[in-house]
Every structure is written in C-alpha cells, then in structure tokens.
Design brief:
The chain is mostly beta strands. It is built from no helices and 29 strands.
Amino acid sequence: MVKVDILADGLLFPEGPVAMKDGSVLVAEIRGGTIRRIAPNGDLSLVATCRGGPNGMAIGPDGALYVCNNGGNTYKPDHFAALGPAEDYAGGSIQRVDIDTGNVQTLYTHCNGHRLSSPNDIVFDAQGGMYISDFGKKHARHRDHGGLYYARPDGSSIAELAYPLAAPNGVGLSPAGGILYVAETECCRVWAFDVATAGELRKYTGNGAAPHGGRLLCTLPGYQRLDSLAIDSDGNICVGTLITGVVTVISPEGRVLRTVAMPDTHVTNICFGGADMSTAYITLSGTGQLAATRWPTPGLPLHFAL
C-alpha cells in the first residue's frame, strides 16, 4: 500500500473532491447534504447546504461550482451505505453553487420531460459544456435506468446523449477531449464514447457495438464495483473501485496497468492537484475520510479549475 495521508475524517459519505489552487479541497457530503472546504491544515468549513445528496462536482467557466445532486437517500443510523431514496425524494437535479456566498441555484430537474433520477458525476469540456452521468435511483424493489447528458451551465439546454446505461457513475474526458469515458458501477465496465463535437457523440458501429453507441474499453473480473474517475496526463483512466478498495488505473487501450490500495473498501473518487498536479486526493466513503497520496503520473488539469 502506498503512503496515504488522511486530511480529514468524520465526513458524511464524502464524494466529488475538487482540488483548488490555494491547496484546499472541496468535498461533497452525500449523507449530510452539504459541501465542505478542507484547508491544507485540515480545518473544515461549510461552503453550502445543497440538501438532497450532492455527489460529483466541478468548477464551471464562470468560477461557480456545479453539483450533481442525487436527490437524497435513506440510511440506517449505523450503516453508511444508502438503502434507497429519501422519504422526500422527488428526483435529482443539477445545481450551481456560488462558492463565495453559498447560494445554491437549481439549473435542471428534467430532460425532454423526464425527471433526472440520480445525477452522479460531471466533467466540463473546453467549450464550457458539461457531460453528466445519471446513475439511476435504487429503490427497495426496483431501480431506474441511468443515462448520459450534456448541458449548458447557464441553464439554457440539456440533451440526452445515451440511454439506458447500467448505473453510469464516473465521467472523464481524454487529454485531447475527443473521447468521453464512463464507468458503470454494477457491471464494472468502462465505456468509451467518441466525441464528434461538443455535446455530440459518434455512435460506435464496430464489433460488439452497444445500443447506446459506446465501445467497451474494459471490464474488471470478479465482484468489484466502479465509482468515479479522473484522467492522468498520460490519458490513463483512474477509477475508484469499491469492494476491493483500490484505485484501478486503466490505459486508453483498455489494459489494467496497476491497482493502488487504499485503507477503505469504498474508494469512491479521485482528483488531482498540487503545484505539479501529482497529489491525488481520494475520498474514502466507508470511513468518511479524505486521503492524499503522491501519484507517479501527474493528473490532467481540468478546464476552469480555480
């Protein structure tokens, strides 16, 4: 196991870390409905109260924080994992958060007349649009389908790109922006979608083409579950992997290059920061911690990072 520093603990199912250039990290607390800032010295402060279940987050072209809100879950007092939707669950949403004031604005709740179910992760392209995964809500006896969307940050438009997907979670863009990667949690698969132009995907028609138009990049064996992801500067896909408690590093060709063990079975997300982009910030949701470790390959800088 690599050397891991714990920067914060006691977090209520942390997800969606965003590394800031001042050395702090923003983290969503799904179970708490809040967004926290973790200072370099470990001090915690409240950024915003989103309610529901804030999940994946990213800085947009206007310097605001954009949040995938899954609508909220129900939990047992002594169990960190979600049992199903919260009692007041009405669907998920995409929110805009003013980092300075904490003001929360809801941008999207529907697409083509259909309610967003459980938005999960988000990545901005160079043009300022956002690719969004919708995980699909788990209910007591059934679950909603998931999908992939593209939206403008001003609230003017949202389009469905791929539907249905089996619990799509992490999303990330290749260094040149021509490939969109999507990790499916329950099937433990990573799909690659070729980007035709901003917000439009080419439908793959080769051998083994999927109905949603993606091409299968990688499937992990055994009982593992893929969560959110980040891309490094070599174009490798670094995916938080549940159950086995590792970050799985997958090449652009679909080969598993290595796994990096963490002290938690629920490694949910990773982002890169630091002066040289070689610090990996990793959310450990089972223990409610934010960890940091040196990464051998610098991370890919995100568009509009602050």
